[in-house]
Amino acid sequence: MIFLDAAATTPVRREVLEAMWPYLTGEFGNPSSHHSLGEAAANALSGARAAVAKALGCRPGEITFTSGGTEADNLAVKGIALARRAADPALNRVVISAIEHPAVEESALYLQRVHGFEVDVVPVDRHGVVTAEALRAVLSSATALVSIMYANNEIGTVQPVRQLAEVAAELGVPFHTDAVQAAGWLPIGVKELGVDALSISGHKLGAPKGSGVLYAKGRLRFEPLVHGGGQERGRRSGTENVAGAVALATALTLAHAGQSELAGCVSELRDAFIRTVLEAVPGAMLTGHPSQRLPSVASFCFPGTSGESVLLELERLGVVCSSGSACAAGSDAPSPVLLALGIEPEVAHTAVRFSFDSTVTSAELEQAAEAVAAAVGSVQGLGRR
């Protein structure tokens, strides 16, 4: 079986398992406990925090461990907006893009529904790019926060985050980016990106599910969502997942070390795969930006088919992929991301996403491309009967 759904999750790396194993077994202490087991856990947590901070180019105190990217996004969007409005009641607007992950979109809509915020949505162009001009047009003196993802999880489009963050900074507005898909493939130095907050999820990097990180710059205040014993400097109460933090830190360090070379190699494989599919499948449409995209994502629409039918046929042929975001599983509605690009609903229903991990080979992608041509041809043939 060829696994091409790495944007949904990745297998846990052996080095990560080995690093976290002691904290699942003998070193099982609570890092808040004042005895040797607790101190060992606290030291491991501090080490993990320092390793994540090193990869991001920030201070350890600016790192908050969470249960994943969704919680990190929620903490950033809700927490920063609520804290900013508490300090200045005039700050009652949040800005997001039209293609945000549901963790950001739903957080913004929660602020609107429950707390009376206004949500300003920045449109994207036909490739899914937010321009500086489009962002500047929706910003105002009442904006509490801008949240625009670094790289889209469905179409792979990479945003000009540095440029967008500079636009927000012109009005003194904090800028958060969801870097869940970008981490491991793109540079994530927070100073270079110019962001005030950034979210990461461990299971996209080779760590187990259930670990995440929110970076929040310096004295940027945010209201905690989880209250209790005041762990994580009062930002996220609850006994810390020490093994998860160690796992994420190990996975991020490994990914960061080889990021540039690996991204270049996988980009070449991705481009060859895209060319082969477009040549082999008449009418196939690449979605997302043709070059300004993640090395690991190739997404298409196949007009005249059903995306779900193509997926089933591909799995029968030994290729596992997806029709879009795993977070939208079970939904019959066409992808809001594709609709935001101006793609017609009936075409959006034909979407298929292929996403690769660091171990993908050219032979696997050649075989997968052949399977795509066969699967689409088979589904189109059934539709003509």
Question: How are the secondary structure elements laid out?
Answer:
Blueprint: E1 2-3, H1 14-20, H2 36-56, E2 63-66, H3 69-87, E3 93-97, H4 102-115, E4 118-122, H5 132-138, E5 143-147, H6 161-170, E6 175-178, H7 190-193, E7 197-201, E8 212-216, H8 242-257, H9 259-280, E9 285-287, E10 297-301, H10 307-316, E11 319-320, H11 336-340, H12 345-348, E12 351-355, H13 362-384
Parallel strand pairs: 1-11, 3-4, 3-5, 5-6, 6-7
Antiparallel strand pairs: 2-8, 7-8, 9-10, 10-12
Helix pairs in contact: 1-8, 2-8, 3-4, 9-13, 10-13
Organism: Arthrobacter ramosus
Domain Aminotransferase class V: 2-367
Enzyme class: transferase
Instruction: Please state the average pLDDT score.
Output: 95
Q: Number of helical runs?
A: 13
- Tell me, briefly, the overall form: globular
Q: Can you give the helix content as a percent range?
A: 40-55%
Please give the alpha-carbon distance between the first and last residues: 30 Å
Radius of gyration: 21 Å
Structural class: alpha/beta
> Biggest sheet, strands in spatial order?
2-8-7-6-5-3-4
How is the biggest beta sheet arranged?
7 strands, mixed
Q: Which residues form runs of ≥5 with pLDDT under 50?
A: none
Bin the strand percentage: 5-15%
Q: Helices and strands, in N-to-C order?
A: EHHEHEHEHEHEHEEHHEEHEHHEH
Total number of beta strands: 12
Protein name: cysteine desulfurase
Keywords: Iron, Iron-sulfur, Metal-binding, Pyridoxal phosphate, Transferase
Cofactor: pyridoxal 5'-phosphate
Catalytic activity: (sulfur carrier)-H + L-cysteine = (sulfur carrier)-SH + L-alanine
